[in-house]
Amino acid sequence: MLRKPTEVKRLQGTLRPDRVNDAEPQPGPAPVRCPRDLPTSAKRLWPKVAPTMRQLGLFTELDVLAFRDLFVRAREARPPLNQ
């Protein structure tokens, strides 16, 4: 069974101090600058989303990978317009 991250438990109000994982990985904050390898559509959205989420502590370096993956998958799932 997968364990919920400590922050999720805290947000849900179910965190118990005796069950906190002190060895839980803590990803660093996301970079301020837009990564070069983001798709064009993601680069347009970056300045609208990244600063606010980073300021709230909701955007880590791992989220940047998910952000990029989301746009790549969306592009692949979209049917070609010429067909």
Keywords, separated by commas or semicolons:
elongated; 83 residues; single chain; mainly alpha; 0% strand; 3 helices
What does this protein look like?
Helices cover 48% and strands 0% of the residues. The chain contains three helices and no strands. It has a domain at 46-76. By secondary structure, the chain is mainly α. It has helices at 6-12, 40-55, 61-77. The model has no long low-confidence stretch (mean pLDDT 81). The N and C termini lie far apart (44 Å).
- Provide the helix percentage: 40-55%
Q: What is the CA-based Rg, rounded?
A: 17 Å
What percent strand? under 5%
Quote the distance from N terminus to C terminus.
44 Å
Q: Which geometry do the CA atoms define?
A: elongated
The total of helices stands at 3
Order of helices and strands: HHH
Q: pLDDT under 50 segments (min length 5)?
A: none
Summarize model confidence as the mean pLDDT. 81
Work out the number of β strands. 0
Describe the structure in brief.
By secondary structure, this protein is mainly α. The protein has a domain of 31 residues.
